[in-house]
């Protein structure tokens, strides 16, 4: 029996199949590509070609800016994408790559860059590099040299950049702009001994010079790479004069000296030239200051005071908002989940209407209704009363909670309705048969089962309200303003709106401090979320 089985399917005369040759494998690969469709292949090649062209352009720009790390990242990422999509295999990577790229760009990069800015002094007066700060300081202190010769000047334009074509008294021709010092050219177009044009540039007419007179008179073209050599300026677009700064820069010593007062300003590492008495020359430049922003946010008394009450109000606002919207939504869900009620679908549609409108638009409508002088609430409902709903510190907080309740309860109503309908009716019937009262059934059976599915949503709602910028900004703009605070902050500001004001409003904008606040908020919300999710694991035992 075993002998017969072993001989089944065996033919001594049948030839052994040969392995395909290399040429056959290549032909099979081409056939596979063709079977996928020539259109798909063309789309892939065109898409990769566009990507490579953009990457190559970015590489040239980055090399010009000496951004070596970013250049390496672009090259490696582009090569990796081509390797993934030009290969036959790696199918999972082809689907994951777009999502990973967007994750890195819009999440990881943003978070990392924000963290980096939090460790710098980036802000008003500290926006650029040291070289840019030196150039700006020297230009701001320029004074005309009394015995300066007169230079024949022609104003040129290249793109959006103004240039000065200068003819020296000895006949030499030079060209430059605010960023590029004057340098000699030998292909200028001459007219009566004066250079009037240059290949690659457009010469401005008299009318064009008049139209841009402010920009032209403010233009200062450096004489050389050394800022102490001064700059050339023109008051009328036809004649230029030498201007020398009353600040003298010593690059080796890292000092800036005011020649009028002999005051020496030193680069002490703070991102600005600083005198012995603490006076600083502005603008400065961006430098890494370590944890100074975080220390200042937590220890500086003038900042810590507003930070404390804003943080307290942020927690109160988030907690009260979650609690009120949840319990109102749950109450309405229980009411409209009663099978004996007629027209339940119509009532449910009415309940979710606030959720259907954009929140920022609803906030603006409520701001108009709560206006103290002509708002609908004061003029119609309260008979012409002058209740300061949005201008009194306490009432403004109450108003925000009321509006947020209006905006938030429909969401809780929807999720609570769905959760209630997912609870088996047998549990309630069994409890009723055992003599349990309706309140006991709700408290001991329904509510714990609801929290199993709703606890993560409540945590997410807390995180959302913790950073609910739209409502605060649209309704009160954080007001009323706290005039005693050194930073632009109001009584209804939450942390995220305070960060926005520190970064983008006021005469001084401190992006470094705002980024430090952002990192602190992120850490706080992350800790609360982690603790909350761990606590909610105990609810899973109910299932």
TrEMBL record:
CDD domains: TM_PBP2 (cd06261). The keyword Transmembrane applies. GO terms for molecular function: ABC-type maltose transporter activity. InterPro entries: MalF_N, MalF_P2_sf, MetI-like, MetI-like_sf, TM_PBP2_N. Residues 1-24 are annotated as: Disordered. This is Maltose/maltodextrin transport system permease protein. The chain crosses the membrane at residues 41-62, 68-87, 99-119, 307-334, 346-367, 398-420, 440-464, 511-533. Keywords: Cell membrane, Membrane, Sugar transport, Transmembrane, Transmembrane helix, Transport. GO terms for biological process: maltodextrin transmembrane transport. GO terms for cellular component: maltose transport complex. It is found in: Cell membrane. Pfam families: BPD_transp_1, TM_PBP2_N. It is a multi-pass membrane protein.
